[in-house]
Design brief:
Length: 147
């Protein structure tokens, strides 16, 4: 699948896929719909791209003016891909990685995120575990935040 940044500072830059078949990137059409819905909420927002895969969602947020994105994923291949994609888009200096996806969810939260984007696989109940962890720690979001 060919991914690209849809809008903003890095518009049109092609992103790398994670090698193998462990991730299924969100298509350009779905990302465009997501960011059309979020519209004005992206500028200066603070994101956590949980289960980041290629990093396309977080990179799109940065391209559209997000102040910060925390990327996390379960394996090294996605993290290496995210690092490469941040280089391609010129956002490499903004890389922050949290380690295992759900580990930070169970710790006391830092100042809240504006948006926590989570799209885990159904593998090993990750989706339900992610939602339970986030629901148990609402402080991860700022007063206007959403997941």
């Amino acid at each position: 699948m060919s991914l690209r940044v849809i809008s903003g500072k890095a518009k049109g830059r092609k992103l790398k896929d994670v090698p193998g078949d462990t991730t299924r990137p969100v298509t350009d059409m779905v990302r465009e719909a997501l960011f059309d819905i979020l519209a004005g909420d992206v500028q200066d927002s603070i994101w956590w791209d949980l289960f980041a895969g290629t990093g396309a969602i977080g990179i799109e947020a940065l391209s559209r003016g997000a102040a910060f994105v925390l990327f996390s994923d379960l394996n090294r291949a996605p993290i290496a891909t995210i690092q490469a994609n941040l280089q391609i888009t010129g956002f490499a200096s903004r890389l922050k990685y949290a380690g295992g996806c759900l580990r930070p969810c169970w710790k006391p939260p830092p100042p809240g995120y504006s948006i926590i984007y989570t799209l885990p696989t159904a593998y090993k109940e990750m989706a339900s575990n992610a939602l339970l962890a986030l629901d148990a720690n609402p402080g991860w979001l700022n007063n206007e935040g959403a997941w």
